[in-house]
């Protein structure tokens, strides 16, 4: 923790490094209390750079020795203007020289989980973004790449497994019960991809042969008791390897590829070269302990980290402003992979719906709040604060739009060119976009690349308005598109974005109509096409449509072809038509959600009772979807789920209505109860019609059946509880007790808890007793209680009281990030009505826990702080109370740099 405020680092201030470090030798004598790190750096000044001091950055290191070419050298340890600790050598030797640095560390005291730390009795590292400087003085920036040779020494009994990047070169016994392993990674890499592990672990192993015939060893390393939970991770890894080779021609370039699970981890996982380190949540799964959602999470995170091997590691980022170069592209790739794994067109559409839902839930609010920033940010104080939904998920949408604009084959050609040009380099987002454009010279992307690249530069979600006119006699339909952006921090004005709009047109019977633009040949007009909007306003006139009084109904932004907020101006009847007939499953879902959202918002805005029922027309349309056996169960479950309170809050904010989270909750809960009651017999039928067939299988089809059955059970319990009928809650309780697998058990437990059924308490106790030794299951147990809907009426507030009590539960700890997130993030992010209370008790709890977390893990604290990002959209009394809590948090004497940036932004005018 430093005094004052960290300075702003600007993208435009980038200068290439004056020194290079082509080779690094590291020797670790590992000990939890005092680890000694000896580094031998081969350093040379860049031919183009003037003679200048060498400045190596370090953090919290105790320096023992510095030698240049084996000789003592004059150096000082200093703070630069911004307060960063540096080892400065004013006059380094000319030419290539070896700098030897010896430092000491205390891994067991490292509670930030950045650099070298201990967890569960082992040693682990996390170096992205700026953790390597906590291991040794270095040019800790991604455009400095080195070949690493790493020697690990440790007590053999306590740390029998010694791992680092690359290939194992040698192993031997040492005196005093210690042993040694030497690893060599032939691929030059930036320091953020360095990793080591020393622990008592076992591995699931798999040997594979690539298409080209090369042999590889795959390993998933876990604690001895967890070996039976590694099958899905290994399968996912093998599928990822096959996919990347088939789809992008990108092979595994290492003899050995390792995944290691660790239970204390700040994020999801880390793509260290050849030695991926994972939050155990994204490795460990057995049918008995993991739900379908966990299985999906493992599949996509394993794929994500594996795909980084090319998009991130082989071609890396020039500087951290380019983070989306690797993250946006790699998320795009893992989403494509998950779609391909899903199989059927319907299952693919379900994936897309889930991705869009996640984007709207996390990224749209970010883009409308104080943390709004471009996909390629212009300035930051703490880079860890910019591992955001914008850089990841919006970044992936930007890549996806390029893919849409140049087509599948064109995109592949662009990727090929990207690797041909930049393999082994540290490059920028511009370099990526240029490669995709250059490989597709005739495309809109190539012709208007600068306009397209505004997606990288401008923050905020574009607003797109679509209106149309119908010439009944001529059979001509004209679409008018207008777009604009709202001001965001540091960007008062926005220029128009270039975006692909995928659309279709339906007639009154729901039949697809041909799309022939004025002036085009009528022959072979398609029923779906992609328009490109590249200006603030544009008109498109379609002709050759059947004349008559009924205007066609547009289906706009199919597949969510651009990340915009669309106002399509359609009325309920038109949306009902799309819900019934749109050939694009995403749009069918979207139409249903829009109908629901419109009705819910009208009830939130009105002064009358929150319990005004949903319209009969809408309920019938939803019932029809629920009954339609032609639709996949997964799709039906999504279509029958109400928009979340967070999404409703965002929509209210977008129209300027002050947000009363209690009212939103009351409106949504009563709609949920209405759907539960009015569709009760359909829910029962859906439940009975979707039993699990055979044993547990984590494929899209089986998961969809379980999703629908679980939703149905939740609705049945909700309705039964209100009616005082014990049958469904009894069945759910039975399932908690002896369900065949975790998806079934946890689905039943959730149904009871979400219904506030009397049996929820006993079921929670029983569940805890069954799984007390399974940390990841206990995380779920906390999470479920923290996200449970507050009861309406006299019992309101009981969920919050429960969470407060659970903070004192013997199993609860802030020190483990998964556990802290399970209780506190679920309350503050996913349970608005429990968190935003008129008595401000939620904000008080937030402030207390924030201070506690910040004292030992600032990165986690900075993430937790973001629960208050959007305090400005709140109605009174919430708004003033939230502001006060933020001001109190900012006024504390000790605030980390990470947290300071978030609080300052939230409080800035
Ligand atoms: N690069 C990692 C990923 O996208 C995420 C990451 C960044 C990370 N910083 C981290 C993980 C710090 C753990 C800790 O997969
Ligand atoms: Zn990533």
TrEMBL record:
Top-rank lineage group of the source organism: Bacteria
A biological-process GO annotation: proteolysis
Domain Peptidase M1 membrane alanine aminopeptidase: 234-447
GO molecular function: alanyl aminopeptidase activity; metallopeptidase activity; zinc ion binding
Cofactors: Zn(2+)
Domain Peptidase M1 alanyl aminopeptidase Ig-like fold: 460-567
EC number in record: 3.4.11.2
PANTHER family tied to this protein: PUROMYCIN-SENSITIVE AMINOPEPTIDASE
Family (UniProt): Belongs to the peptidase M1 family.
Name listed for the protein in its UniProt record: Aminopeptidase N
Lineage: Bacteria, Pseudomonadati, Pseudomonadota, Betaproteobacteria, Burkholderiales
